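**Folding the chain**
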Amino acid sequence: MTEAEKVFTDVPCTFCGCLCDDIEVEVNDGKIVGIKNGCAICKSRFLKHHENRLEHPSIMKDGEQSSVSLDEAVSKAVEIIASARRLLIYGLSSTENDAHREAYKIAELAGGVVDNTSSVCHGPTILGVQESGEAAGALAEVRNRADLVIYWGSNPLAAHPRHISRYTRVAGEYIKDPKKDRKIWLVDIRKSETARTVDKFIKLQPGTDLEVISSLRALLRGHRLAVDEVGGIPVSELQEAVDAMKNAKYGILFFGLGLTQSKGRFRNIDAAVRLIQDLNSYTKWNMMPMRGHYNVSGANKTSTWQTGYPYAVDFARGYPRYQPGEYTAVDLLARGEVDAMLNIAADPAAHFPKACLKTLSQIPIINIDPKENMTSRLATVNIPVAVAGIECDGAAVRMDGLPLYLHKIIDPPEGVLPDRDVLGMIYKKLEKEVKK
């Protein structure tokens, strides 16, 4: 191997909440040329990280993006933030933890609102946990101990391609033969790719998650149901499920947006938490959300560390206030309350409802992202940044709450800085502007 050739081992993949940390990255002459152990999405992320990049800072002038220096772009961003009466800072789930810190400092200094992408995915999970508590565990415990695994409202083969192969279809300390010693179930409204690989598929009717979970709790407590089926599932089958759950040595409930975003929303999570608590009277059970963006868990953690709240935090009164549905990004934009937006590592223009897009098209947007996207086309200011976990280091939090160190593999394009440095520049200039 020449000096130009390097192999980085134990690299975390910064795509989904699994944060698979066994990736091997081969670098030759400053370019990534090979990936081992990663899924197809991981390979694409590393090998094509240089594609569709924002090439330079720019400011929208006369309807077109004009290239400017980094200092000029930062100064324009500060001008927009300083003049805003209702600033929204959004995103954060696809960048590293130090960038979060700088974003919260800007929100506090500007008296704005800071929200992350969990408000449109696992926000109900957080509300349910706040209501009933958290039955948490680690992915390592699942791999080594779980003999019954339930995926509810999720499709890991599509969204988290290596989740099953790394944690539930692999041998562990107390699970020597995963096919024999461990059972995997899927509860969903349709037969997905994952359904064809599990030991048992339970199909329920759309919007009946809360009724089914409540029925499982009732059966677990010894009550008889005065119906023959719930959510399209025969009561006899529900009773069999309850018996199997009670007799498991270690059980885990993984749940996705099929549970958080269906009818009932955070009440679904509340009921699921209470079901797990009931099961812990008989045996050992945990539950875990299947988090999407690689550091959305980190965004919730860092927000809680620094503001006291996991998302939807308003600094308008000089101190943090928390109110999902009032200070969440979609609600603020849909009501037309926002007059400026700082977008960090997200693409709201591609994913938010039509009512939000109307507001986004009428307000100045500062977009900080490595790549071109729908939001960058609307943005008043675009600032390209390094790709965390590839072009800069940092830390991110796995779906089970474990923080992992992100590696710097190669250098970013010339003049391109990490999110944290760009946000730090904005904060310092904004601080001077505020003191005038």
User: Anything to note?
Assistant: Residues 419-435 form the longest helix (17 residues). The first strand starts at residue 5 and ends at 11.
